[in-house]
Amino acid sequence: MNRTTAAADTASPSGNRGLALSIGAFAIWGVLPLYFHILSHVPALQILSHRVVWSVLLLAVLVFGFGRAGDIWRAARGRTLLLLCASATLIAINWFVYIWAVETGHVLEASLGYFINPLLNVALGMLVLGERLRRWQGIAIAIAAVGVLVMAVNGGGAILISLSLALSFGLYGLVRKVVAIDSLGGLTVETVLLVPLAAGWLLYTGSQGTSGFGVSAGQTALLLAAGVITATPLLMFAAAARLLPLSMMGLLQYITPTIQFFVAIALGEPLRTVHLITFALIWAGCALYAWDSLRAARAPAPKTI
Fold this sequence. Notes:
With about 300 residues, this protein is an all-alpha fold. The protein has helices spanning about 5-10, 15-40, 45-65, 70-75, 80-105, 105-130, 135-155, 160-180, 185-205, 215-225, 225-240, 245-250, 255-265, 275-300. It starts with a helix and ends in a 7-residue tail after the last helix.
């Protein structure tokens, strides 16, 4: 894609719509820690279960409303179903670690994980899919790796939160890249697969008198909203991805961890020297990666005979 094509993609009505959808999705994900912080007295596993249960109800309305149930049923079989079982497990791990990180005051480490994620995606593409690694991409990953090493040496076990989030979401994206189903269908099947466990856990906690549901009208409303909060940005992101160049989406995704970083500061998390060094290295790697992505997107396509 050359400079003229990229500009046309983002200047068109569909490009403007894609830009609005992507910024909206990344902004919602950025402020999501505030939602989990308000519910910090509700165990992370319960919040995760509410996200799954209420999301599947919302998705069911969309699937049947758009007449997609038959298509999804026919697609979610054999190898596709096995891959969706793997992606459902990975997204559940990602959601749980993220909620737990917020509840235990590790939003900074969560932010770091999502800064690492784009660079990890490049590395996974090279190692698993055989994609070529451009020179500046390799340097960007190496710089980020040094930042991770600094955090691991000086920050103790907290780096495991960042790595768990980056790895689980990176592998999730890798699985979804190769699975033969669209975004709405994939997300619907994933949540359906998780519903028995989620609903079972909510029923168990309710029978034990430890459920956070029904404690107060405000808390119940927040838990009910988990479905909308979960599904809406995912669907917005999926729609934006069809309207914007991949390079543009790659740059916009840094909105989320940037907002998370400032949310962590606002919530009073201590910004230690090791955080500053680690983030400086990660940011340098991300900036180099972003520059290389723009450079590659603006380069003229090779002539074919």
